[in-house]
Amino acid sequence: MFFTVLERSLSLAQHNIGTLFKTGWAFILILVAINFAIGASLMPETGFRTVSYLTEPVQTVDQGALRALSSLLNLVIGFSIAIAYVRRILIDANDFPVVFGSRTLKVLINQIVLALIGILSLIPLLIVALLLAAVTGGLGLVLLFAAPFVALMVVQKFSVVLPAAAVDDPLTFRDSWRATRGLGWAMSFSALVMSLLAAVLIGLWALLLYISDGLLPGNLMWQQIRSAVFPMGTMLLSVWVFASLHATFYGLIRERFAARIGLREQDLAQVEESRQAVRDKARKALSGVRNLNRR
């Protein structure tokens, strides 16, 4: 199942690069304008020493506050691009180029809740791992390394609420957990691989911009442009990778959208088999408990 989810996510992303720009072009321009304005206000007389103003060392409290505001604006606009992208893929929506409303707020709130779920899942796992490490050594260390992955799996099982909110589907966190039964490990492995892909792409983007500085040495205007397009590109790459991944997750639990993301009937059958296997295991476990109670 892991290979199915990963393959369809990569294929969906590959075939919808143009969709990303068609649906997000207005937000992209806003991203560039915001980052250019903030970068210009933070740029020292000698120019930036790194790729962007966001990667520069913080010198004063005011600089830190302005960069925090910039990060927040980049995230909000990034989620707006992701919503437009997912809506075009799943329901062929043709929204106004710039839309910000209750739908965006719902997605943002869901993302905050997911982040809290991840933290609350990770903390007890780390505590248990450290206690076991103090007593058993090796077993505790294994759990210590496994804890982030387990927390990632928990978050991914709830994460289907993000594309659901984008297409106005009243899917709850409880529904997401139940609907992804039997898919947790496949989702978490896929999310891990896609995260590594996003990190590599962002690293290559930063390297490309850093190398380009050698073509225009000492050009302060180019430094301002480079500083602005780095966070814009980072946000676009993140949206492209993770929105494609979560759209695939959503297609797996909402079969009516499966054809739009390229899922085949055998893929859906495989998902149903995974869910049925989990249900059978649960029934056997429950039956065993009942038999023990009768004795």
UniProtKB/TrEMBL annotation:
The keyword Cell wall biogenesis/degradation does not apply. Keywords: Membrane, Transmembrane, Transmembrane helix. The keyword Zinc does not apply. It comes from the Bacteria. The chain crosses the membrane at residues 20-44, 64-86, 107-135, 141-162, 183-208, 228-253. This is 4-hydroxy-3-methylbut-2-en-1-yl diphosphate synthase. It comes from Roseibium denhamense.
